[in-house]
Amino acid sequence: MAQTASMEEFEALLNESFEMDTPQEGSVVKGKVIAIENGQAVIDVGYKMEGRVDLKEFANPGEEPDVKVGDEVEVYLRATENARGEAVLSREMARREEAWDRLEKAYANDERVEGAIFGRVKGGFTVDLGGAVAFLPGSQVDVRPVRDAGPLMGLKQPFQILKMDRRRGNIVVSRRAILEESRAEQRAEVIAKLKEGDVVDGVVKNITEYGAFVDLGGVDGLLHVTDMAWRRVNHPSEIVSIGETIKVQVIKINKETHRISLGLKQLQEDPWDLVAVKYPLGSVHKGRVTNITDYGAFVELEPGVEGLVHVSEMSWTKKNVHPGKIVSTSQEVDVMVLEIDPAKRRVSLGLKQTQRNPWEVFAEQFPPGTEVEGEVKNITEFGLFIGLPGDIDGMVHLSDLSWEERGEDAIQNYRKGDVVKAVVQEVDVEKERISLSIKAVGGDKFAEAVGGVKRGSVITVTVTAIEEGGIEVEYEGMKSFIRRSDLSRDRSEQRPERFSVGDKVDVRVTNVDPKTRRLGLSIKAREIAEEKEAVAQYGSSDSGASLGDILGAALKRDE
């Protein structure tokens, strides 16, 4: 019994010894390099176990293997024996386990880790952290987008672990966080030395649509496009170029955000200091059109001094048109200074004021009564618009179209494009209006014909037509009509047929109407007037003398 017990104890002790000395599969063990052959290192891990590991597993990315005979190394025991009776070892897996332990501690303590970028993958890069492979997103490589990551490949540098999951084998790192922290310290140091108003040298690092970023020695400042020059700058590249060293003035420093605003034009003389002296009101200057908008055009008088020509000040005659139809960008034009506001840095300019008012010129060249010729530009319900010299229009009212026809009828005789003659009636320069008359061309025939005729005058007319209601007569080319009741004092003689075409008849003028251009005529009125005159001179009907006696005496006296 005693012998049996001692054998059991010996066996238990032997098994315990085996368990203590024999490494477990899936663990990291120490071994010794006993040989290097056929691109592999032969490693003795003890307990008469040897295994082979490819030399490449002893190399960091981009480097040569660092191992030699006699080196003690840690390896991962994947299996105690393979088909050839050798242990299955892995240096890479050992390094990974060791790295994960080290990285977990660094992640827990928010410490930086060292690694090297060795590959490119979708969305970023792979980083070797001393045995563990991490993912570096493209957005975390630098503070600004990196176009070429070549110079960073294989370079040992610090990284910050953003996230890690050992079970899934995922590690995400950032190089940008390290740079931002370093830059923040550097910015704080540089900003502490700067103050507003300082003039410093800087290097243009980047150019955008709205300005340029200038490196002031570890900290960037923004040189806005509006602070590059006193003149209008279309794009910052007109003033600066990447890599150029420039002298700038510190305009503003935000201590909280560490933002610095820079100025370049502040180091130059402000042209507005002399604007009032160089450009007095009413003076005319040559400028260049720099920009055209819906409400006008900007004209550069000199670099840094621009004025606005409002659309209402661009042309005397072209109303409600886009400024781009009057001037073009880069065109040189003559402008007049209308107003200056130094506080708002504004100059109001006039383009049309450099030319004479066409209505004034027309009034001088074509005073009222002058005959002009022009093309019918437009026809409206109240008259015609005629194109006149100076690119201006005059209006012929319906009432000034014809002497004979009504205006509504006379306007039907005209079409756009017709060339007509007219007489200037009135020119209103302030209201920019010109009144014309077509019917006045050749003079007023009615006025000329009846110029010496007035009511009560006796004139001789020629019978031109016999009608049932009276007779048509003509005087100096002007037609008139004598009604049947006015043909004689005696009712028996009021017969149109007693007259013949061509007869000469003395008539009395009863009315002169310039509007209807008609003379009121009457034979009856003439006879009554003659009777009254005879009675007044040769007797009275009360004395007993007959009218025949009185008229006979008057006729004899005349003879």
Automatic annotation (TrEMBL):
InterPro entries: NA-bd_OB-fold, Ribos_protein_bS1-like, Ribosomal_bS1, Ribosomal_protein_S1-like, S1_domain. Keywords: Repeat, Ribonucleoprotein, Ribosomal protein, RNA-binding. It comes from the Bacteria. Residues 26-92, 110-176, 197-265, 282-352, 369-439, 456-524 form the S1 motif domain. SMART domains: S1. Pfam families: S1. CDD domains: S1_RPS1_repeat_ec1_hs1, S1_RPS1_repeat_ec2_hs2, S1_RPS1_repeat_ec3. One of its GO terms (molecular function) is structural constituent of ribosome. One of its GO terms (biological process) is translation. The keyword Nucleotide-binding does not apply. NCBIfam families: PRK06299.1-2, PRK06299.1-5, rpsA. Binds mRNA; thus facilitating recognition of the initiation point. It is needed to translate mRNA with a short Shine-Dalgarno (SD) purine-rich sequence. This is 30S ribosomal protein S1. It comes from Jhaorihella thermophila.
